[in-house]
């Protein structure tokens, strides 16, 4: 399954956002992979501060379960000063609908 989504970062947070992802915590990487995540990329448009995320997952259920892991909760807290977040600490994001794909 392919998923795409958009998020934003606060003004001036681009360099720090990138620094915190180079690399992500090994424990978070292992958790993502253990939950069936592969081919995960995040791109930044510096002009609009918009982030575009693309990920391939094994199942929606396993993707959603990541949010309940301790390491994901810590990551959200680590990142929350850089971007808009929801009350639970998760980043505000908007899922995108796939309209075209070419293999």
From TrEMBL:
Keyword Isomerase on entry: yes
Pfam family, one: rhaM
Enzyme Commission number(s) of this protein: 5.1.3.32
A GO-annotated cellular component: cytoplasm
InterPro entries the record matches: Dimeric_a/b-barrel (IPR011008), L-rhamnose_mutarotase (IPR013448), Rham/fucose_mutarotase (IPR008000)
BP terms from Gene Ontology: rhamnose catabolic process
A GO molecular-function descriptor: L-rhamnose mutarotase activity
Enzyme superclass (EC): isomerase
UniProt keyword terms in alphabetical order: Carbohydrate metabolism, Cytoplasm, Isomerase, Rhamnose metabolism
SUPFAM superfamilies: Dimeric alpha+beta barrel (SSF54909)
NCBIfam families for the chain: YiiL_rotase
HAMAP family cross-referenced by the UniProt entry: L_rham_rotase (MF_01663)
Protein name (record): L-rhamnose mutarotase
Record lineage: Bacteria, Pseudomonadati, Verrucomicrobiota, Verrucomicrobiia, Verrucomicrobiales
Primary gene name: rhaM
């Amino acid at each position: 399954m392919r998923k795409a989504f958009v998020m934003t970062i606060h003004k001036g947070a681009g360099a720090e956002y990138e620094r915190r992802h180079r690399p992500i915590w090994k424990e978070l990487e292992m958790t993502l992979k253990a939950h069936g995540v592969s081919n995960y990329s995040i791109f930044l448009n510096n002009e609009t501060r918009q982030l575009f995320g693309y990920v391939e997952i094994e199942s929606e259920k396993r993707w959603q379960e990541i949010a309940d892991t301790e390491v994901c909760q810590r990551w959200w807290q680590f990142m929350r000063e850089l971007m808009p977040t929801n009350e639970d600490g998760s980043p505000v994001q908007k899922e995108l609908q796939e309209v075209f794909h070419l293999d």
